[in-house]
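ok trying again, last paste got cut off:
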Amino acid sequence: MLKFFKYLAITEGISALLLFFFAMPMKYIFNDPIYVKHIGMVHGILFTAYIIIATILKFKQNWNIKKYIEICLASIPPFGTFYIEKKYLKDA
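nice, full thing came through this time. structure:
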C-alpha cells in the first residue's frame, strides 16, 4: 500500500500543477473554463484519495501525529506531495 501511496502522491501533485498552472490560466486569461471542470474533478478525486490513504497508512504504518499532519498538509500547496514523496516514500 505504501508503493500505491507513493504513486498517488505523485499523481495528485501533477494534477494540482495542471489545475493551477494550466486549467486556471485557461479559464481566467482565455475564458475557457472546460479544463477547470475536468482537471478539477480529477484533482478533487485524487486529493480525497490521498487524504484517505494517508489516514489508513497512519494506522498501518504507525505514523506519529506530526508526520501524519505534515503528509496531509503537504497536499495543499503545489509541489508539496513531491516533497513528501522524496522525504518519506522514496524507498517504497
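cool. Helices lie at 2-28, 34-60, 65-73, 80-88. The two ends are 9 Å apart (CA to CA).
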